[in-house]
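User: I'm writing a short methods note and want a consistent example. For DoxX family membrane protein, I'll paste the sequence; you return only the structure tokens, no commentary, since I'll be parsing the reply automatically.
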Amino acid sequence: MNGTLLLRIAVAIILLTHSVFGIFDNGINDFGNLYLNQIGFAPFGVFIAWSIKLSHIIAAVLLVLNKYIKLAGFVTIFVLIMGIILVHFQEGWFVVGGGRNGVEYNFLLIIVLLAIMYPDGYKKV
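Assistant:
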């Protein structure tokens, strides 16, 4: 059994729940129209929002299957970093408690993804 199995499953669940609910409650379209388009991504906001959420779903499946882990990780880390830059950084560090909607959750996901991508540490090839 791969040592990253529990982390891969946990991140997959997080990515799926963060994405799938938006499909059914119009959250993806709202994020595209009401946020991304408003901050300068018009007319591509909805397309970008759907691309983000579909990338999360694909990454979740790949993590569970233990396939293309680095590709899934790099794409997801890029999305998370952009989320930090565009949304969370201005809110500070804390998601709850000392603040609201901060970067700490994305930071943790990035570190967990790196641990999954490089379970034995980074080694030059």
